[in-house]
Amino acid sequence: MGYRKVAVVGAGITKFARYAQETVSELSYEATKMALDSCEMNLSQIDCVSVGTAPDAFDGIHMNGEAMAEGSGGWCKPVMRNYVGGGTGVMSAIHGWQHVASGMFDTCLVVAEEKMSSAFPHPAGAFLTIFDHTTEQPLMPTLLWIFAIEMQRFMATHGYDKKDIARVAVKNKGNALNHPSAQLGAEITVEDVLNSEIMAYPVNRLDVSPTSDGAVALVLAAEHVARRVTEKPVWIDGVGHALDSAYWCTRDLYYPDYVEVAARKAYEMAGIKEPHKEIHIAEPYDPFTYKELHHLEGLQLAPRGGSVKMLMDGHFDRDGNLPTCPSGGLLGVGNPIAAAGLMKVAEIFWQLRGEAGKRQVPGQPKCGLAQAWGDLMQVGTVVVMRA
Amino acid sequence: MDIKHQKKIDKTVTSLRKKDVTGGKVVTESWEPNLEYAWDNGPAISRYLAELKKGKLIGKRCNKCDRVLLPPRMFCEICWRPTDEWVYVEDTGTVNTFCISHVDWKAGRLNIKGGVRPFTPAVIEIDGASKGMGILHMIDKTNPKNIKMGMRVKAVWKPAEKREGSITDIEYFKPIGKKK
Amino acid sequence: MALIERLQNRPDATYWPGKIPMTYIYTAGRAGEAFFKKLRDSGKFIGARCEDCDLTYFPPRIFCECCFNRIEGNWVNVKNRGVVHTLTICHETYDDKPKETPSIVAFIRFEDTDGGMFHRLGDVDYEDCYIGMPVEAVLKPKTQRKGGILDIKHFRPL
Ligand SMILES: [Zn+2]
Ligand SMILES: [Zn+2]
Hints:
The structure holds three protein chains of three kinds.
Chain A: E1 6-13, H1 24-38, E2 48-52, H2 56-59, H3 64-69, E3 79-82, H4 88-101, E4 107-115, E5 119-120, H5 143-158, H6 162-165, H7 167-176, H8 190-195, E6 198-201, E7 203-204, E8 213-222, H9 223-229, E9 234-243, H10 257-270, H11 275-278, E10 281-283, H12 289-298, H13 307-312, H14 329-332, H15 337-353, E11 367-374, E12 379-386
Parallel strand pairs in A: 2-3, 2-4, 10-11
Antiparallel strand pairs in A: 1-8, 1-9, 4-8, 6-7, 9-12, 11-12
Helix pairs in contact in A: 4-15
Chain B: H1 3-10, H2 18-22, E1 28-31, E2 35-40, H3 42-53, E3 57-62, E4 67-69, E5 75-76, E6 81-82, E7 86-89, E8 92-98, E9 100-101, E10 120-126, E11 134-139, E12 152-157, E13 170-175
Antiparallel strand pairs in B: 3-4, 3-7, 5-6, 8-10, 8-12, 10-11, 12-13
Chain C: E1 15-20, E2 23-27, H1 29-42, E3 45-50, E4 55-57, E5 75-78, E6 81-92, E7 98-110, E8 116-121, E9 134-139, E10 152-157
Antiparallel strand pairs in C: 3-4, 3-5, 6-7, 6-9, 7-8, 9-10
Bound molecules: zinc ion (ZN) (2 copies).
């Protein structure tokens, strides 16, 4: 179809913190200002803004998209918000891509923000009302339950061992040591994960990403602008997103069909036939350790039932064949929901430009993928990018 | 990302501790919204609740994809057409998956060491509904260590006079023997 | 395509009561911290100045929304008096209950700034209020000020 080529030309990120003093607007400003400065652009060159932020119940601000708009450079510009739960961050990039690829706008600021620390007694409580109000909520569920329930199904179907899956935490928290935004970079062992507090078996404390405050921003530009602005544009060559049924108990949770659907759309658009060979580097969504592997299988980057072996073989290490979450992921950098997803797109941008500093994966990767997941275990959002 | 960039990122956020926020070290404003709702159940779930009150589980069939949907719904999300007849299903089922939770809905820790039993929520595939048609409910009164995927379970109902038309009219599910 | 069944009797249309059981603590942010601390400790207002755009933001911000320059620290003093830009009298509480004493609320603009503030008017009858009326802030005594918008009791006519 007649899409225009769209490039990422700049990126910015705040530090991720458990309790930030900054307001929603100030966090958005810090990331957005850094993104514009990185490509020496100013607001007058920006045509529209795509903002992403997860449930208003976290920030405690209704219409949080509006609260973050001016910090996102949205003053007197077309500002549009998207929201698909945890999938929001990557969806924001897709949303921005749509604005530019369609020919409607030449440039778009993509900004994702979350401030979870305003929510008491704990941000987890904000998830209570995502469950069906009549048939599930009276059981007082927590989101942790459905992660643990899904992990158990994933493990049982493939015969995976919890202690092998724990290596995702070791890898990602280790990678995060080199990320300047990271909240939880650490050198840990598999034993540390297994000995950490049990949250909901089979999920231990260190299998889970933290709650965070933070923001991330990207500058997107159509080809003719991108070539003027930078010598190193990173092209968004494929996008895909899909939403499965909200009857989550009806699905076989061992496999994320919706991620596969989203990925296949993105691969088709990017002309990718053999993803495991053509994708050099990936940022699969990792709010929990098993999720990274679950998603790698859905993304066709690991065979069904084969991701743990690849993990054990070092395939996904920073110097492996397919480095995954070289940023440190949500487990290491932190999980300000919408911002965490966009952080993954920013990481692919920096990696493909060779600007990831100490996190740089060797071998000059040319093609990368970022993916997020969310809503009620039901959405997959995928972008494929090329240097 | 060079060192200069790293320092810039450090300055973007003023990191606080929880007690700075709750203890008034920084300027804060607090809010206790009274967010109360009356959510309409709709025709399908209204009937589901009415049957629960009678101690029964009811689903609805879609004659196009030949599935018995549970909980019942007025339209089939796959065929995108109205569903057909009401179908009673059993109050027995098979554990599809479960977890052993040491935390409550607000991430508060249960006093497990003090003898509190962890929550054991499960996805239970109900007999008579189509394969894979699970519901979320709790397993209880059994050692969490003995819960297995594929285990057979049966609903333990509240006494009739205490039922109020709620999913909690089923107190919990308990293990039973193999399916005949 | 209509659904085949509909509820025919009102009692069959049931609802499920529930709530979102959350509370919030908001930080004031970096500009808000500077603004409210100044108000609390010295009873004075500050704004933030963008020289490039010749704009004075009140209340202050850390950035200029027009040119996106950082203006954090470019604080300027703002007088505790302003002009009623527009106003109304409110007979209901925020959750739709009748108020015993109706309150007058106004958007007040401040001299030498491009901003303004939404607050209550006091020590005056609604009939005597008008657009363009000069007003000044009435602060709580210093010992009762906590760093918040209610450190200002209300605005009254000058
Ligand atoms: Zn059907
Ligand atoms: Zn300015």
